[in-house]
Amino acid sequence: MSATHTYDVAVRWTGNLGTGTDSYRSYGRTHDVLGEGKPTIAASADPAFRGDPDRWNPEELLVASVAQCHMLWYLHFCSTEGVTVVSYEDRARAVMTMDDSGGGGRITEVVLRPEVTVADASTAEKARALHGKVPAVCFIARSVNFPVHHDPVIRIAGAPE
């Protein structure tokens, strides 16, 4: 029998400006993402869709999930295969392509751009190669219907940039 895991979150709309959704422009897109015992994430729609630019939007949270999953698996592989990572930062980007229907669209790709610093120069090539192992096991990347690309930069601790 397969193991299963469940992930429960709540989304609470906070954008009732007094008249609810009586028209397209009468309500805010703000909402909170909640999880038991966790800090609340203040969220909204993308500003292009009347959202609050000071809050996280679903598209950003999706690309963050892809980047987080990749990072966590990558660090796992490094730890088990003798690569000591001393820093990791990813500036990931999702591309959403709108369709011709006048309102729909979909994420068509995510590009991960991790910048990894390793402790030992002799492990740099292995560090680069380990990114290639992640797509086969990353829960999030395996669950989406768009390609996830990665373009890593590997640095050596203490080496000039």
UniProtKB/TrEMBL annotation:
A UniProt-annotated Pfam family: OsmC
Coiled-coil residue windows: none
InterPro entries: KH_dom-like_a/b, OsmC/Ohr_fam, OsmC/Ohrsf, OsmC_Ohr_Peroxiredoxin
Protein name: OsmC family peroxiredoxin
Organism: Streptomyces qinzhouensis
